[in-house]
Structure formats: C-alpha cells, structure tokens
Amino acid sequence: MIVAKSERLLRMIGGLGQALLSLLFWDTVFVVLYKVFHWTWLGSDSLPLGSFGTIIGIIVGFRNGSAYGRWWEARTLWGAIVNRSRTFARQVLTTLSSEQAAGSQEQAEVAAVQRELVLHQVAYVHVLRQQLRGLDPVPEFVRVLPQQDTSELARTKNLALSIETRMSAQLIAAHKRGWLDAWQWQAIDQSLASLMDSQGGLERIKNTPMPQQFDFFPRLFVQIYCLLLPVGMVSSLGWYTPLGSTLVGFMFLALEKIGRDLEDPFENCIHDVPMTAIATTIEINLRQMLGETELPAPAQPVDGILW
C-alpha cells in the first residue's frame, strides 16, 4: 500500500506510460493529417464527447466502486483478525489454569500450553498472509515455532487451517484435563470460529476474481473514447489537440487503472492490503502479552510502500 504523502507521479501512473505515448502519437498523427494534409473531414464538432464521457465515467466509476469494495472488505477482515487474535490470546492467558498449587508441574504444563497456543496464533497470521499472496508459508511457521514438527503440516493444502485445527485439538485436551470449564471452552472456540470466518472471507476474495466483463468493457470503452477525442477537438484546438486530447485521455485511463489496481488486494503489489504490517502488529501485541521484551520492530514503509 502506498503511504507516502507526496508520491511521485511516475509511480502513481505506473503502467500508463505506453498507453499515454500511444495516445500522444495518435493525436499528433491525427492533427497533422487534419492541418497539413487538409483532411478536414476527420474532424466533427457534432461528436457528443461530453455525453460519451459522462456515460463512460459512470461505468468506470461503478466498476471502481466494486473494486474498492473488495479492497476495503479485505482490509476490514484483516482488522477483525487483529481484534480476534488479541481476544484469543487474552482468553488463553486468563482462563486456562490448573487447580494445582503454583509452582507445581501441572502449572508449568499449563504455562507451556498457553505459550504454545499464543505462538501458534502468531504463526497463523503470518502463514495466512503468505498463502493469500501465493508464497510458501512454511518458512514463517518455522520462524515462529522452530521446535515444532512441520513434516505433517507442510503436506497440507491449507496450512493456516491446519494450524487452527491443531490449536483446537490442544484446547480440547486442556478441557479434558480440567484446565478449562465448558463455558470457557465455548468462548475460546467461538474466537477460533470467528477467525475461520475471516479467513473464509479473505479466501473468497482471493479465489473469486472480478467478472471479466468488469475488466474488459470499461477498458474497451475508455480506449475507444480516447481514440475519438481528437475527432471532436481538432477543429477547435488545432495544433493544441495532442495536448488537450492526451490530458483528457490520461484522466480516463488513470481512473480505469485505479479499479484494476484495487480489485485484487493480495497480488503482492504496491496497492495491496499491507498484510505484512498487520501480521507484524499482531505478533508484537501477542508477544507482549506473553511477557517477552525482545519484540520484532513494527513494519516500516520501504520507499513509500507499506507491505
């Protein structure tokens, strides 16, 4: 996600360079044919560019609204994961307990299980972001839980789901040992269920792209409109047609590109939801709850980009 307050124009319009050069070339050729070769029949003041532009603007705006809706839903779901991760860690650390005296072996076992569950949640959020980006999630699991056996988990198709399943099994075992009563178990299980709901929503966005019509037709209409711009401008702007036409075309091309940039928020590009920063925030919070003092540094923008 671009976070720089004064962003460079070249980055913001990245990918439009070739289209703008092509449009400028077309406008220049058009005005030369009109002014030098006197092909005056090419120009038409009656061409309703304003009406065309309004209609295309509505279409592109509708498409961009849908694309931003996908991006914002992804960010909202990650926000829910932040809150539910904190809630889960709080529940584990405050409700999981033994009736044995402090300092007993069972109390030590409870503390070990608490720590393991919280670290599994840390691993879960990092694994989930890697899966959504289509990257290998196993190294993140090993980084957080280096002592855990990953041979079985590495073979699973959905490592994040397997981590949550393992956590659920650990909580069931704790309940059977009397470390959790039925109400406490249900409350923690509800937190896990909420995390699964958020993961399902993120996977739905990832696995359900925008319909192809939403990509194809707005882009086609914008391109046709850009080609028609010099037709309606050349008689009034003359030699300034390339300037005016390219400027107006740039506006429409940029608006169309906004939708394409936002419609897939997990493509590991500069416009994505900053999942690394969010997951790192969760890790810092949960490790603090464990009482750790050596914490990872908060994610910082790199060249104006927060990943």
From TrEMBL:
GO CC annotations? plasma membrane
Protein's UniProt keywords contain Iron: no
Q: Which domain of life is it from?
A: Bacteria
Secretion signal: which residues? none
Q: Which UniProt keywords apply?
A: Cell membrane, Ion transport, Membrane, Transmembrane, Transmembrane helix, Transport
Q: Where in the cell is it found?
A: Cell membrane
How is the protein disposed in the membrane?
Multi-pass membrane protein
* Transmembrane parts of this sequence: 12-34, 46-65, 216-233
What the entry lists under PANTHER family is as follows: UPF0187 PROTEIN YNEE (PTHR33281), VOLTAGE-DEPENDENT ANION CHANNEL-FORMING PROTEIN YNEE (PTHR33281:SF19)
Please report which protein family the annotation says this sequence is part of.
Belongs to the anion channel-forming bestrophin (TC 1.A.46) family.
Q: What is this protein called?
A: Bestrophin
